[in-house]
Amino acid sequence: MSGTVEVRREGAMAFVTLSHPGRLNAMSRAMWLALRSNFEALSADEALRCILVRGESGAFCAGGDISEYPSFRFEEQSLRTFHEDEVWAGLQAMLDCPVPMVAQIEGACMGAGIEIASCCDIRMAAASAKFGAPIAKLGFPMAPREAALVQRAVGDVLARDMLLAASVHGAQRLYEAGFLLQVVPDDELPAAALAHASRIAALAPAAARLNKATFLALNRSAASELVPTAYRYADSPEHREGIAAFLAKRSPVF
What letter does residue 28 receive in the DSSP assignment? Predict the structure, then answer.
C-alpha cells in the first residue's frame, strides 16, 4: 500500500482524509499526486462551502514516506522534481483552493504533516498532538517554498527551532504561537472540528472565497528565488547518512 488521499462529499462540505496504514499517514509520492488532483477538483466545485482535512486512525501525518527516499533523493534533478512538481504542486493546489479549510489534527503532525496543516485556514488539535519537522536528523533541509510556508504559519521562532534543532512541540505551545485556533481533549476533537467546519459552511460562501483570495495575495513569498540552487545537496554524504540511519533505526553520525 502506498497510501491514499480520500475525499467524501456530504452536503456543502467535503472531508479529505490522509490514509497510509501502518505509517501514521506518512505522505508517499502517490499521495502527493492525489492531494494535488483532489484539491484541483474541489476548487472547481462551486457548491462546496468548507473542507475538513484530517488523518486516519488517530494521526494526522507523520511526514514523508522515508522508505521511498533512497530510490530518488540522491540525484539533484529527481530530488528537485519530487519537491517542486509533486510536493509543492500538492501544497499549491491546497493554497489555491478558494474553499475554507479546517484541519483536524491528532497525534503526529510532522514534516509533510505540518506543511499540509499550514495550508489550512483554521487548525484545531487534540491535546496530545505533537508538531515538528525534525528532518535535520535525516541530513537534509526543508525545501525553500515549504519552509516559507511553515514559517508564515507557525512563526519565525518555532520554525527555526523545528528546522535547526529538530525540536518537537506539543499542541499547547503551537496554540500559544498562534498556529492553532483551539486545543481540545483528544476525544472531543472530531466533534469540535466538525462543528467549526459546519459553522463556516453555514455562512456566506462568496464572502469566504473573497477573503481567501485576499489572504493568498498577502502571503505570496519570494522563496521561489532560492529554488535553482536548493537541491545541490542531493548526493551529499550527510544526506545519504541521515536517511540510511533512519531506515536502519540507528542514530546518524554527521
Answer: P
Query: Per-residue DSSP letters for 153-197?
Result: HH-HHHHHHHHHS--EEEHHHHHHTTS-SEEE-GGGHHHHHHHHH
List beta partners, residue 7. Answer: 16
C-alpha 109/C-alpha 89 separation (Å) is 20
**Rg of the chain (C-alpha set):** 17
Say which DSSP state 99 is in: S
- The answer for residues whose C-beta is within 8 angstroms of residue 14's C-beta and 6 or more apart is 7, 8, 42, 45, 48, 50, 51, 52, 99
Q: Is the pTM of this model over 0.85?
A: yes
Distance of CA 191 to the CA centre of its chain: 22
Query: Along the 254 residues of the chain, how does pLDDT read in single tens digits?
Result: 689 999 999 999 999 999 999 999 999 999 999 999 999 999 999 999 999 999 999 999 999 999 999 999 999 999 999 999 999 999 999 999 999 999 999 999 999 999 999 999 999 999 999 999 999 999 999 999 999 999 999 999 999 999 999 999 999 999 999 999 999 999 999 999 999 999 999 999 999 999 999 998 888 878 888 999 999 999 999 999 999 999 999 999 99
Q: Which residue in 160, 104, 103, 156 sits closest to 133, CA to CA?
A: 160
Cα–Cα separations (whole angstroms), residue 23 to 61, 128, 147, 219: 9, 18, 23, 32
Give the residue from 59, 43, 45, 56 showing the smallest Cα distance to 17.
56
